[in-house]
Amino acid sequence: MPEISSRYEGLGVGFAPYLQPPGPGVIRWTVGEPGFDTPRSVIEATIKGLEDGNTKYTRGAGSLELCQAVSDYLAKHHSVKVRADDVVITPGAKQALLYSFLITTMPGDEAILLAPSWASYEPMLNLIGAVPVNVPVRKDDFHPDIDAIRAAVTSKTRMILVNSPCNPTGAVFTPEELQTIVDIAVEHDLWIVSDEIYARLVWMDYPHVSPYALPGGAERTLIVNGWSKSWAMTGMRLGFLTGPTNAMHAAVKTQANSASHVPTFMMHAAAVALGC
Predict the structure, then answer these.
(1) Cis preceding-peptide flag for 91 (omega within 30 of 0)
(2) Please, are residues 192 and 211 in contact by the beta-carbon 8 Å criterion?
C-alpha cells in the first residue's frame, strides 16, 4: 500500500473527544460552542433560500449582497473600512485562516504565534510548510509580551498572528498593545493575520480594536471573522476574510481552486444575521 504524504505526521484531529458529554461536575472549556440558539430569523432565511431555489453555483467570493453587508457591518461595529470587493466569504473562519496562512507565508517562512494559542493554528501552519514560532504572553494577564515579540523576529519571519479576544485565555488586547504590534510589523515589513471571531463577545472597559483600523495596519492586516460565535452558527460553517486588495485576489484564487464558494442558499441568511 502506498504511504500517505509525510506532511500529516503528527497532525491530529483533536475534535472527537470534545464532542463527548462532560462528566458530573465538569464544565467544558474546550470547543467554543455558544450557549444560545441561532436566531430564528436566520433559520427562516436559510429555509427560504432553499425554497427559493438558491442551490446553484454563484460568485466565488460570495454574493455581492453579503460582501456589502460585511463591509457595512465592519464599518459600523469595528471602525474598519473595506470595500465589498475586498471581502471573501469562506466555508467557516477556519478556512479563512488557512487561506490567510497560504497568502502570507511560503514553506520555511516563520509565523509568530502568541502562546498559548488556539489549537489549530500550529497544525495548519505545519501542514503548509510554514514554521510556527511560539512567543509566550505575559503570565500575569495573558497580554502580549512586546519585548519577546521583538526578539522573536528574524530574517525568516513573514507574519504575526493576533487573536483578540483570545482563545483560550480570554485576553482582549489594548489599542496601545495592538498599535505596537502593528509598528513592529511595519518596521520589518510583516503581515498581520487578525483572528477576530470573538470580537463581539467583549465585556471590558475598552472595546475590541482591529489592527487593520490602526495607523499602518490596513496595508498589511488580514481580518478573519465569521458567524459561528456571535450568532451561534457553528455548524453552518460561514466565515469571511478581508484585507488588502492583492491579498483578497489571492484568496479568491485559492477558494476558486478548492471550495468554489459557500452554499448559495446560506448567503442571504448570513446577511440577515449581521443585522440581528
Answers:
(1) no
(2) yes
Helix (H) or strand (E) holding 159: strand 157-163
DSSP-derived pairing of the beta strands 239-242 and 87-90: antiparallel
pLDDT in tens, 8-61: 887 876 554 555 566 677 666 667 888 889 999 999 999 999 999 999 999 999
pTM: 0.93
Nearest CA-CA partner of 31 in 18, 20, 21, 22: 18
Is residue 86 exposed (0-12), middle (13-18) or buried (19+ Cβ within 10 Å)? buried
Contact 265, 236 (CB under 8 A): no
Domains of the chain: 38-274 (3.40.640.10)
Q: Are 95 and 239 in contact (CB under 8 A)?
A: yes
What does the block give as the cell for 72?
A: 457595512
Per-residue pLDDT tens over the stretch 7-19: 888 787 655 455 5
Q: What is the dihedral of CA 209, 121, 99, 265, to 10 degrees?
A: -80
End-to-end CA distance of the chain: 52
Q: Which residue has the cell 514553506?
A: 107
DSSP class of residue 10 equals T
**Tens digit of each residue's pLDDT (9 = 90 or more) over 202-229:** 988 888 999 999 999 999 999 999 999 9
Strand order, beta sheet including 131-136: 87-90, 239-242, 221-226, 191-195, 157-163, 110-115, 131-136
Neighbours of 75 (CB within 10 A): 13
